[in-house]
Design brief:
Length: 85
């Protein structure tokens, strides 16, 4: 692979890692914000029982981890191609 291809893999891998970290932080902020506002309402059944579950919080975290894994794999592949080529 050419040096430009390896550089592109490194940059795209880094972007995936940054997006993954951003998604995990976004999940944490959204979850804390939601639970913080619902605890002030009169009906706190959902806050106390945790029912019904809110899947969007887990979805952001899962997507973030997937993006981080894809980014790490891309960076590792770029380093392997750089050593070989």
């Amino acid at each position: 692979m050419s040096q430009g291809d390896v550089s592109a893999l490194l940059v795209i891998g880094g972007v995936f890692i940054l997006l993954g970290v951003a998604a995990i932080l976004w999940d944490w902020i959204e979850k804390n914000g939601y639970l913080g506002t619902i605890s002030h309402h009169l009906d706190t059944r959902e806050y106390l029982d945790g029912w019904p579950a809110r899947p969007q919080f887990g979805a952001l975290k899962t997507g973030g981890w997937i993006a981080i894994i894809v980014g790490v794999v891309m960076i590792v592949l770029a380093l392997i191609f750089w050593q070989v080529g």
